[in-house]
Amino acid sequence: MPVPATSRAVGALVLVAGLVATGSASAAGKAAPDFSLRDLNNVTQTLSQYKGKVVVLDFWATWCGPCKIEIPHLQAMYTELGAKGLVVIGISADDARSSSQVKPVAMSLGITYPVLQDKDSAVVSQYDPAKTLPYTVVVDKAGNIATVFSGYNAGDEVKVQAAVTALLGQP
Questions:
Q1: Any idea where the domains of the chain sit in the sequence?
Q2: pTM of model > 0.70
Q3: Which CATH superfamily is domain 27-168 in?
Q4: pLDDT in tens, 66-99
Q5: 128 to 4, 105, 121, 125, 154: CA distances (angstroms)
Q6: Can you tell me the distance from the alpha carbon of 166 to that of 106, in angstroms, rounded to the nearest whole number?
């Protein structure tokens, strides 16, 4: 039996809305913009130094409740898959006024992956002009954006890990 045109249209809208919600419709497949930021020990790090690895960029802030819920999941994934080539990089969107809180909050959350500070939001703006937090970008081994997750909903960590696991299995 043929599917009515209205059902097909609604289905297409739901699919497009889902892609836009994750950001993957506009960003996936594009080269991830390189950046240079300082970590919590004042050491400069770049995205390009991790080429050849799967990288999860987690844009977050100390005042962001959903970020604090997502971070333990990212930490667990990093602990589990770091030896297999996964790099997780936290990029704090805290401005100069709240940047002194980044290190204590990172420590209290048990973060062991690199945390970089983007005090002027230059990198955040490149990846996420709407500045939605958290904002999670999965970058493949070639340095291209594989998928994006805007915001955090329970269960997103499963989707992020599935994307990462699939990319780690690719040459």
A1: 27-168
A2: yes
A3: Glutaredoxin (3.40.30.10)
A4: 999 999 999 999 999 999 999 999 999 999 899 8
A5: 37, 23, 10, 5, 21
A6: 28
